[in-house]
Amino acid sequence: MDLIPAEFVIGGVYFPPPLLAGALGVALAALTAFLLNRYRLSRFFWYPPLVFLALSVIYTGVIGTFLIPA
Q1: DSSP the chain
Q2: Domain that holds residue 59
Q3: What is the pLDDT of residues 32-59, one digit of tens each?
């Protein structure tokens, strides 16, 4: 039996695994950016939107590799 999902079904709509990994990665990056702004740690970064983009890519890669293998 194959444990790697080909697609996810939510409400009768099929979603590919990289789409869900990307959505979760962006959501986690948004939460991290919110916490960095809340505790004023984003002032130590040269360009915070670039940090958000980098966190999105890192989180998406980690989620896609370990939680939702595509």
Answers
A1: ---S-S-EEETTEEE-HHHHHHHHHHHHHHHHHHHHHHTT-GGGSS-HHHHHHHHHHHHHHHIIIIIS--
A2: 8-67
A3: 999 999 999 999 999 999 999 999 999 9
| 2: in domain | no
Count: domains in the chain: 1
Contact 7, 54 (CB under 8 A): no
pLDDT of residue 53: 98
As a whole number of angstroms, the distance between CA 23 and CA 51 comes to 17
Residue of 49, 47, 18 lying closest to 33 (CA atoms): 49
Burial group, residue 38, by CB count within 10 angstroms (0-12, 13-18, 19+): exposed
